[in-house]
């Protein structure tokens, strides 16, 4: 695909991703007895739940479950597709060679993991409070593949951008790589850290800078 078209397509996909993210953030905080909890925070806890106790803490009550189910449906239908398209098109626009193939492979793994994770959450939501070990295992596999794939894919893509471009795009590539890999901290923290979001934004800016030029390696003096 032409690099300029890929960069422009990535920008369109990014706008769609941001729009869905804003919709997620607009969902109401639900009080299940311990005070109102942001639905977005509850969804993140649901994704990272590894036990029945973790599921109970994140789901809380039927009112919150209804919101979580709605968010997961939108996630499966729109959000995964939009952010996945952004990552793939941005990689095609700004990278090449072996690191491009590595990044794309990680992103495909991440998207498959996210589909598995979200589908499992909907399965749990439909059967709640009946939960099986298989459900928890699938949730863990999907969540792990998603976060690891995104983090490592951003690391590979950012490294290639930093190596092959000049000027501001090179430094944005460094940010994409560093903050992308730091996103692996999600496995050691109680709540997802902002590193992936920072990496994603740096990649977005790099696409915007290169949407009007060929974004050929070693030729982007300003971008």
Characteristic key phrases:
single chain, two-stranded antiparallel sheet, 8 helices, disordered C terminus
Topology:
Elements: H1 3-25, E1 30-31, E2 36-37, H2 39-48, H3 52-59, H4 62-94, H5 97-127, H6 133-164, H7 167-182, H8 195-210
Antiparallel strand pairs: 1-2
Q: Quick recap of the structure?
A:
This protein is an all-alpha fold and 223 residues long. It is 76% helix and 2% strand.
| Poorly predicted regions | 219-223
Distance separating the two termini: 20 Å
E-strand count: 2
Shape: elongated
Q: What is the rounded Rg?
A: 18 Å
Q: Count helical runs.
A: 8
Number of domains: 1
* Helix residue percentage: over 70%
Mean pLDDT: 93
The major sheet is characterized as: 2 strands, antiparallel
The SSE string, one letter per element, is: HEEHHHHHHH
Strand order in the sheet with the most strands:
1-2
- The class by helix and strand makeup works out as mainly alpha
Strand content: under 5%
Keywords: Membrane, Transmembrane, Transmembrane helix
